[in-house]
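so im writing up the methods section and need the Cytochrome bc1 complex cytochrome c subunit record in one place, dumping it here so i stop losing it
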Amino acid sequence: MRLLNRSVGRLSRHRRRPLAGAAVLLVALLSTGGAYAALAPASQAEQEKDNAALVAEGKELFMINCSTCHGSNGEGITTQNGKLYGPSLIGVGAASVDFQVGTGRMPMAQPGAQVEVKDPSFSQDEIDAMAAYVASLGPGPSIPDKEQYDPETYGSEKEKEEAVTLGGQIFLTNCTACHNFTGAGGAMPRGGKAPSILNTDPKHIYEAMLTGPQSMDTFSDGNISPEEKKAVISYVESMKEQPDYGGFNNGALGPVTEGLVAWIVGLGVLVAFAFWIAAHTTRTNQTKKGSAK
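--- predicted struct ---
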């Protein structure tokens, strides 16, 4: 009988242990869920409220400064003869706005083949507001984080050196046709030009690759990954640090300009020398004939 009681007691204790564990787990889940329900919705609501206020501010700035060319809803404007006056901004994303307005290209004084870089007309807060409004019109590339474009965020110097090597290969393959192998830029068809990127902010270089402004191709993450874009920026930043050894670099535009200068200057000197020899020979012959008489 005693053995039976002991067996029943052990069985009862074994049954209570799983029940106690389940009860503790249930209490923990309820506590975590309650805390999340109390805190998360409030912060999410505040974030949505702040974003709505930012979009409203951006819309006000957009209506005053951009709607004349791009339309009141960013739909773009076409003139009566069918000529595009201002392109649609639906789907261009916040990154396009940050690049165009942040580099001073927009607002544009007047339409033309080339949009010139100038000092920005708006503060960064105003640019962020307009970018938020344009982003609300349709999905598009967002403004990159510093981790995506800043070479200084690499973990070690070895990683940075490897990125410069990779970025150089990508740059020489995809970018030199327009921006030159030195990044100094060059002429483009129909009155355009590829600007120098040696003084361009790394964030704007990333955004340009992502959005493809004007004649530039769009390099989506499927074409060039975010890591490769950062590597290209690392290479461009390394070119800024290359020393200038002096002499005439002819704008650092490569062998074409060097050959042109050699052809014009060298051939010009030879032609001038030939004329000098011919003129000197003529005078000498005339002097000899005069002496003979």
